[in-house]
Automatic annotation (TrEMBL):
Pfam assignment, any one: Acetyltransf_1
InterPro entries recorded: Acyl_CoA_acyltransferase, Glycosyl_Hydrolase_84, GNAT_dom
Domain N-acetyltransferase: 71-210
One of the record's GO molecular function terms: acyltransferase activity, transferring groups other than amino-acyl groups
Domain of life: Bacteria
Protein name: GNAT family N-acetyltransferase
Lineage per the UniProt record: Bacteria, Pseudomonadati, Pseudomonadota, Alphaproteobacteria, Hyphomicrobiales
Length: 210
């Protein structure tokens, strides 16, 4: 079951044939909500890290936003964070890593999509004890054309309700520290920033009970 947002926009289940669209949306929102096309030399890697595996491993909680021009956003949920991380570590990233050169750990030498190649070859799964009260997590990205229509709020509420019905007691998100708009959006949905010394400093964690 999806949602009709009006104006030719609707939420529906994400399918395997949407992978190219997921990669496109992830790329065009990949610079803290802005278009990362000019920055990346491999246009698919962002989506293969942050979008496609959610459709593959949690299809019941994976949705795309269709608009007049096709896929223009996605909303993903994962009710069991350690479970999906284990699948990604064992089955998703190793085959991708096998076809990518390792750019090495020296960030000063990285160019283009080297940061993504490194992330695929050395994936970071953050789920310390402080997040265990919020075992679900999610991602949302919308192209500019789909913003300001209430799509994000209604879509997130839909996914959060599904996660709650699946038994998740809380949810966490990772947000770019410089993306103030996204942080404000999540606050309106009941999320708040969680600060703890065990959490990485390069990203902001926001949490809410379900």
């Amino acid at each position: 079951m999806g949602l009709d947002f009006g104006g030719g926009y609707r939420l529906r289940a994400a399918l395997a044939e949407d992978h190219a669209g997921l990669n496109m949306v992830c790329l065009r929102t990949g610079d803290s909500g802005k278009d990362a096309t000019e920055r990346e030399d491999d246009p698919d890697l962002l989506g293969l890290i942050y979008a496609v595996p959610y459709q593959v491993y949690e299809p019941d909680f994976a949705f795309v936003v269709d608009g007049p021009n096709g896929v223009c956003g996605y909303i993903f949920g994962a009710p069991d964070t350690p479970g999906i991380y284990a699948k990604m570590a064992a089955d998703w990233f190793p085959p991708l890593a096998a076809r990518l050169a390792d750019p090495g750990p020296d960030e000063s030498r990285w160019q283009g999509s080297d940061w993504a190649r490194y992330a695929i070859r050395h994936p970071e799964f953050v789920y310390p004890d402080v997040l265990h009260r919020y075992p679900a997590h999610g991602h949302i990205d919308l192209l500019e054309e789909a913003r300001g229509r209430g799509i994000g709020r209604r879509g997130m509420e839909h996914v959060m309700a599904k996660l709650r019905r699946a038994g998740a007691t809380g949810m966490h998100l990772q947000v770019s520290p410089v993306n103030r708009g996204a942080q404000s959006f999540y606050r309106k949905l009941g999320f708040e920033v969680l600060k703890d010394e065990v959490l990485p400093r390069h990203t902001t964690f926001m949490v809410t009970g379900l």
